Amino acid sequence: MKLIVFGATGLLGTRIVDEALARGHDVTAVARDATRVDTHGGRVGTAGADVTDAEAVAKAAAGHDAALSAVGQHETPDMLTDAARGLLDGLARAGVGRLVVAGGAGSLEVAPGMRLLDTPDFHDEWKPEALAQAAALEVYRAADTPVQWSYVSPGALLAPGERTGTYRVGGDELLTDDEGRSGISMEDFAIAMLDEATDPQHPRTRFTVAR
Asked: How many helices (H) and strands (E) does the chain have?
């Protein structure tokens, strides 16, 4: 498949690119500054684009089969909601019908009606991005779009780690293990995103993955 990865220079984005290459896909990596992209010796195409700009997204994405986004919150409060709109509009213009988005865990429920980000132990420094990710999810859910999007939330802790090749799948509730821990490595999260991009199981919905 021809895949395009937005936010390709971050910790997660680089792992998504690596996983896609390992599976033999044709990959284009997108960042605001295309010179920062690792081309893997010329195996990866590059493009510079602002994901909040639908025209720039459409230009970069034309000719691809599916898109993946590892874009995170930046300096502006509305960046992730603007990115959601830019991606959906731009991909629709380009005729790219599939989008898999790396979302946040904060909007997952830990009890009926209670999100993880609303719990007393949720770190204050994490709240701005968690709230922004939750708002972006609502943009996807409300969108009237031909793009078949999927929003993937990780476990509570998403960090670089081991590629085990396994993960559990859930819906809107936070997944925990027998000891109450919740998390997934970025390597395994990238696997889950590529699995969804190449074999869609959750169109137009949010799902979660954890170890």
From this structure: 5, 12
